[in-house]
Amino acid sequence: MPEEFEFGVTLNARERLDADTISSLVKNILDILKDVERQVTKHNRATVKWQWAEDTKINVVATVNGVSEDELSQMVDIARLGFVRASEAAQGDQKVAWPQEYGDAARKGAEAILKQLDRLESLTIEATNHEPIDIRSAKVETLIRAHAPQRVRSSVEGVLELISHKGTSIRAGIREHRTRRYVRCSLATNKWLDTLKHTPLWDQRVVVEGMVAYDETGHPISITDVTSITPRQGRPLREFEGALPDLTNGRTTEDFMAELRGENG
Amino acid sequence: MANWRIQCWDSSLFISLLTAKEPERVRTILGLLDQHDKNGITIIVSTMVVAEVRRIPRPGAKGPAPAEEDNVVTTPYDPKYLDQVRELFKSPDLDYRVPTPSIVELARDIGDQFPKLLPVDCVHIATALEAKADVLFTWDGAGVQRRRPDAMLRYDKRIGNPPLRIMEPFVPSGEMFDPKP
Question: Which residues on chain B are in Cβ contact (under 8 Å) with A235?
Answer without folding.
Answer: 87, 90-91
